[in-house]
Design brief:
Blueprint lengths: L2 H20 L17 H13 L9 E5 L5 H10 L2 E6 L2 H13 L6 E5 L12 E7 L8 H11 E14 L5 H11 L7 H10 L3 E7 L8 H10 L1 H8 L1 H11 L10 E9 L4
Parallel strand pairs: 1-2, 1-4, 2-3, 4-5
Antiparallel strand pairs: 5-7, 6-7
Helix pairs in contact: 9-10
Length: 272
């Protein structure tokens, strides 16, 4: 099985229940602290807003959602900013669910979803005004190649914003290795290394932040929230499916909360 097909299968197995838990957004949550009473859906949507706001989108622009998941983020972009969105993924489940969500959201004419591999994109040069990549670059077999492709399909002056996990503490790397294997991560850069990758691709970095304590650092809060939803999810998917979903994600929670960070980076393709 190719690396792309392997990643697609990884998400096909996890996305149906993840879609139910997080309302179409499979990326991480953002809780301020343990006292924060936001629901899981709202905490995940906070991250959506936090990352997408760095793009400075304008109505009529064309956005590539690289690793679009089940489509809720693309629907939000089209609704909130009046942009056109092309979402790509290597998960067949995610495409089907995303199309349903766009039609239900009344933006089927502004949002399209396609099976495409960001290692070798099918789009001409300078197709997009902006690129959004929520926790998708981290799965790239060759990060330099993916960033080169995203650079190619952006117009001069176009923007890219992404969020991904990072390494913040190197001790007890066995725990980190389990985390990486669970998420199919070929690498886990520290923040300075993420920035080096982006600069090497030719982008000019305009903003970045590290917010791990409010993301992975709130993993206990996520577990509490998910457990409260277990009966509801079990009623829809069955106990065996929920047990398997839990088993597949067990390694995600293995690292100490200070070991795994979360970076948000926004950069621009130079005007040339």
């Amino acid at each position: 099985m190719s690396e792309t097909a392997n990643i697609g299968e990884h998400y096909d197995k996890r996305s149906p229940i993840g879609d139910e838990l997080r309302n179409g957004q499979l990326h991480m949550w953002y809780w301020y602290d343990r006292k924060d009473d936001a629901s899981l859906t709202e905490a995940v949507h906070r991250m959506t807003r936090k990352v997408t706001d760095t793009l400075g989108l304008q109505a009529g622009e064309h956005v590539l959602d690289a690793g679009c998941g089940p489509g809720e983020t693309a629907v939000y972009l089209a609704t909130r900013f009046g942009v056109r969105v092309t979402g790509i993924t290597v998960s067949r489940f995610e495409i089907d669910r995303a199309v349903q969500r766009a039609i239900a959201g009344g933006v089927g004419d502004a949002v399209t979803f396609e099976y495409d591999d960001f290692m070798s994109l099918s789009y001409p040069d300078a197709t997009f005004d902006a690129v959004l990549a929520l926790e998708s670059l981290q799965n790239a077999p060759d990060l330099d190649q993916v960033l080169a492709e995203l650079y190619r399909v952006l117009r001069p002056g176009g923007r890219i914003s992404f969020s991904d996990f990072s390494l913040t503490a190197k001790g007890d790397m066995t725990r980190v290795a389990t985390f990486m294997d669970t998420l199919k991560l070929p690498r886990l850069p520290m923040l300075p290394q993420w920035l080096e990758y982006v600069r090497a691709a030719g982008f000019e970095i305009e903003e970045y932040t590290e917010c791990g304590p409010r993301v992975f650092g709130q993993k206990a809060k996520y577990l509490e929230t998910a457990l409260r939803m277990r009966d509801e999810v079990t009623a829809k998917f069955g106990a065996d499916a929920v047990d398997e979903f839990s088993r597949l994600h067990h390694g995600f929670f293995t690292p100490r909360k200070d070991q795994i960070g979360y970076v948000i980076v926004s950069a621009r393709k130079p005007h040339r």
